[in-house]
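Sanity check

After download, print the first record. It should look like this:
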Amino acid sequence: MSSLIDNEPGIRDQTVYLQSLGAAQTVTGSKHLLITPELNILIDCGLFQGIKSLREKNREPLPVSASAIDMVILTHAHLDHSGYIPLLVKNGYRKPIYMTQPTRDLAELILRDSAKLQEEDAEKANRNGYSRHKPARPLYTVSDAVAALAFFKVISPEETITVNSDIDFTLYTSAHIAGACSVKLNCFGKCIVFSGDIGRQRSELLPPPAHVPPADYVVMESTYGDRLHAKTDAADELAMVINNTVFNNGNILIPCFAVGRAQEVMHLIYRLKKKQGIPSAIPVFLDSPMAASAGKVLLHYPDWFTISEKECAQMFSGVTINDNHQHTQAIIRQRGSKIVLAASGMMTGGRVLEYLKHYIGDARNTIVIMGYQAEGTRGRALLNKAYEIKIHGQYYPVRAQVMEIEGLSAHADQTELLEWLGQFKEKMPEVYLVHGEPCAQEALRIKIKDELKLKVIIPEQYQKTPLYTVTAHQPANGQAAAADGGLTAKL
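Expected structure tokens:
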């Protein structure tokens, strides 16, 4: 166990540490390790995405062995929070991975898809000989992803799980996507909260984040720590973009995150058509099998949404779902204005690239960007007003209109982050900012310090930070409760 004192064999370190193995001073690869005198607990287990230097970190060994981790708690299903799980299991992890039911179902979809894409990319690299690895291999395969599912354990929000006499934890909904939660850990007399990704106070489909009890330490995301989302109504903005583009006989391309954002945009378009805010006859295409599958999964969990089960089903009406990539070209060639939702949301890959090749060079078309765009992605380049973008080795001039609609972001802005953190002020917790770029974290750090008067730390990757020392000494040969057995819910 990594919590043992190295120079005193058999004596367990009585300090509780925080060690971020990812999403430290960057917005990807979330893995936060809580090292305690009894157990090592990993909050999230995500892949690094974005620029090559970040993606290469996925192949670096972790500073702690997989077998030394005693349990994993997953805040939500997105790949940058769940995508490393198959590799962790492949490397020897054999303990529970806790999550809500929607997260469990969505994570299975995402992990299977991630593995399939990696296998296809490796096969293509080997066939065309462009990889520096001989042979190119995926991080993990579909069979690895399926093997990881055996360790998934479903729990309900606000159900307290007792791990042993010193540790328990509870999930609280965070409004980021269906199933997403923050984690509250009671650990040796102190309370530690991991925010996960915090959603909006007002969302198209989800209720606001739940209230979380006071804490001594808060490990908090900071994605939009330096930004305020526009106060304009997202529906009005989208209607204006669609109507102006249709007037110019153009097409509307909406790169979408397949889980969460695609479903919100579909509902928004459904609402606009219903109240005749946009032409009811304009065709809408969802060219993302993942988004379609995720939508079907979410239909099973109406209690997670603010709309009725009937309306949740109706938002798919009038949408043509393309399950076959061979039909993408036919959609592109179809005459007349149309709305196309396609993954991926940051335009790093997927079917959206085929639409970009055809639409980006025509001034009549509009590319609608919503949600966070990581450094090094085509989405960030377009927001930064790039005059050309590179797709599959070729450069395409940017002549289409590029519009950002901030109101449909799944992440809280600076004001909402401060409001969420303000619920803990009674205990004056120490705050650790993760899941943010340096400029966003520094801006949020200053606001928290000035407005909430709280101590703020910005961890570095792999930095092992002591939180507090446990006063009661645990015997060196004491048997901590196994994380995969004897867990009970406090009634």
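If your output differs, re-run the checksum step. Summary of this record's structure: The chain has 14 helices and 23 strands.
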